[in-house]
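# nightly structure sweep
# worker-07 picked up a monomer target from the shared queue
# config: single-sequence mode, recycle default, output format = structure tokens
# input follows
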Amino acid sequence: MLECYLSEPLMIVIASTFSCAEITEPLLRAIPYVTSDELRHIRFTQLVEFAPTVALLHAALRGTIIMFRIEDWIRADVETGRGSDTELRQRLRLQIDEFAVQLGMLSNMGKPVWVLACPSNGWVAERTQLSGLFRTFTSLAVARARSVPGVTLLALPDDLSGSESVNRDSDASSQAPFCLSALDSLGESIGKQIEGALEAADPSDRTPGRPTELADYLRRLNVCIAFRYAGESDRSDIEHLLRTVSAFSLTGEIPTISNGDLDNLLRDRECLLIVVSERHSSHGCAGVVIFRFTTDELVVESFALSCPVLGKQVEFAVLGVLGSVARDLGLTRIAFEYQASPRNQAILAFLEPVADPGPKGSYVIRADAVEERIGQTALANRAWTVDVTGMTLKQPSGLSHSQ
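# output follows
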């Protein structure tokens, strides 16, 4: 999906927690110089997949519109009956924290970010009788958004505040929260509110550049990446990452991986776990790399990073550590065995600038060129710190040369 973004000269990204494709036509009526080809609708949860390509997207991006409802953040919990009132409150607090981080990432690109908080008055609020709680957390999310520089809060049209605007039928199936007439009013209102900002910007300024604001943000983020070789007790973490990670994965997610498949994948291979923390959060075990050795190559068969750490340059730290391992063993190249899947374009956006195309869809980089490629590609080189105290690499069996 993300590769289509990179081919367009300009675009506005619309990220929402609910279906809102119907606002496109009235929004375009309000901003006549924006075309339908310039709009990109994505799910709110895909903002984390959007992050790894910010440097490439910077020149093409007009701005990002984010629309959210608090009740959508716990919809799955309500549908499955998971969580007490206290647990739901805790999940909402964590979601708002992550929301603020995502807004910070976007705003530090130096492009406009418009945020619209929509009322939580659908079936989730009715079923849980938590309307008051949702109003409280909506206000908290708005306050957090207001504190992020570069974020503009959009106003909800007055005629959407009443219950008659709610689309009860489709709301129960996780689609549009508003009826069609309300969505038309919403699109027109949003369009009018952002029209002035787009007119003030110079549409001819499309010079590609590295977003220095985002680089500064990454330096302040204090990302720390710890590496350790996996043991038998880590098997569940490895399996979870391979099953679920889709955007930044050499193979895409493998939801049907069996114990036997995992045994075969780990047999006679090295497995590194990646533990990530930063100023805002500790993400725990957020990635895995599984690799083997040939006579002159370090071959990466699996590489996956979970969504919460995307855009924080963890992948460059991983590449740097792999480069060190390869050089220590006298290997000349690192090969990534990339397999295209419907959703793993984010890892491709990382591989293409740092490595060269190899056989059978792989990407290859010389071990002695790793640091140079990282310096040329990373937005904020060495803004991260690396902890390798958990790594004790033994001489791999079958390695035919001496170190």
